[in-house]
Amino acid sequence: MLLFKSTLRNLFLALLPVMPLSVAAAPVEQLFSASVNAQAPQEQQLRSALAQVMVKVSGRREILDNPAYETVLDNASLLLAPAAEPDRIAFDPLALTKLMNSLDMPVMPEDRPELLVWLVRGNGADASLVEPSAEIYRQLHASAAERGLPMRDPLLDLTDQLALEPSQLAGFATEAVLQASQRYGTDAVLVGHLMESNADWMLLSDASQVSLNSELEPIDLRRMVDQVANSLFGVEEISGGQRSLPLQPVAVDEYLPSGEEIEIQGLNSAAAYLTLSGWLNQQPGVTRVVTAGRTGSGLKLIIELDGTGPSLRSLLVGDSRITELSSGVYSWVGPQVTAPAVEELPSGETEEQLDGTE
Question: Is 286:303 a contact under the CB 8 Å cutoff?
Answer without folding.
Answer: yes
